[in-house]
């Protein structure tokens, strides 16, 4: 069953509602409209209900199939374009950490090429359960300053949801491009023993045919500051990971800018990561010794 993303722009739903209103006024069924516009009835339904992003091209096809006026078509297309350029703020305190993981999983599940950058910690899809638990625990404490330790059940649910996202790594029809700064290895977010397991997991996953892992060395000459993490799914979704929120955009200009940024970060990274992983593996093994 398809879920509404908790952060879906209102614009998608208003465009869909407008199309549905015009369709009903003209006494056309969803199946008839789909046939006229060259798309399935299921897709028409998803657009009308705001489940699928209202792509301006699809909106124009549907509007012309309904024989709307040029002014009506132009207005609907502009509304759909504005919705795609809209950024939506997903706050942990509002939707919950586990729900956010499920929303991200839905976006990733619909994509084929997934690009992720993180300047300070191991990328979520590469994390072990122990590392993920430490990250979730620390993030939740920073979100709720003064509230004490977060409930263990909340952390367990969020970690479980994140680990469920990892299943997508086994899909051969999907390609993953991960870039991290070396600081992701040197920043110790869990025990030395758990960091050893995390580094071993990075090495293991980097050997998969559909996964590329690049690391930007600490002494690399950077073209700019490494400000925040982000994820780009195909050329349709942008997720920006900030301190206290996750921001989503489907704006074409936003996505194009971040694809260019990711390409630059890839050029500054190295794919020859074994020596760097060995360096930190030995470091944490030394720390783990009694």
From TrEMBL:
Residues 1-20 have a biased composition (Basic and acidic residues). SMART domains: HTH_XRE. GO terms for molecular function: DNA binding. Residues 19-73 form the HTH cro/C1-type domain. Residues 1-22 are annotated as: Disordered. Pfam families: DUF5753, HTH_31. Gene3D superfamilies: lambda repressor-like DNA-binding domains. It comes from the Bacteria. This is Helix-turn-helix protein.
């Amino acid at each position: 069953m398809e879920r509404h993303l908790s952060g879906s722009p209102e614009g998608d739903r208003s465009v869909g509602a407008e199309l549905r209103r015009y369709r009903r006024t003209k006494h056309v069924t969803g199946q008839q409209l789909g046939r006229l516009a060259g798309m399935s009835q299921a897709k028409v339904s998803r657009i009308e209900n705001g489940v699928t992003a209202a792509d301006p091209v699809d909106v124009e096809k549907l509007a012309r199939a309904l024989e709307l006026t040029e002014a009506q078509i132009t207005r609907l297309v502009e509304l759909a374009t504005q919705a795609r350029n809209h950024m939506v703020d997903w706050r942990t305190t509002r939707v919950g950490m586990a729900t956010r993981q499920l929303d991200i999983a839905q976006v990733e599940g619909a994509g084929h090429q997934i690009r992720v950058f993180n300047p300070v910690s191991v990328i979520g899809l590469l994390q072990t359960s122990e590392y993920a638990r430490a990250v979730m625990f620390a993030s939740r404490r920073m979100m709720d300053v003064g509230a004490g330790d977060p409930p263990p059940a909340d952390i367990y649910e969020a970690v479980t949801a994140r680990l469920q996202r990892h299943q997508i790594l086994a899909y051969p029809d999907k390609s993953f491009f991960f870039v991290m700064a070396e600081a992701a290895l040197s920043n110790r977010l869990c025990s030395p023993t758990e960091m050893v397991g995390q580094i071993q997991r990075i090495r293991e996953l980097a050997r998969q045919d559909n996964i590329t892992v690049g690391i930007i060395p600490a002494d690399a000459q950077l073209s700019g500051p490494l400000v925040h993490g982000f994820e780009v799914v195909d050329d349709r979704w942008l997720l920006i990971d900030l301190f206290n929120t996750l921001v989503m955009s489907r704006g074409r200009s936003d996505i194009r800018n971040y694809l260019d940024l990711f390409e630059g970060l890839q050029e500054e990274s190295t794919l020859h990561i074994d020596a760097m992983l060995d360096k930190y593996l030995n470091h944490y093994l030394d720390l783990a010794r009694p």
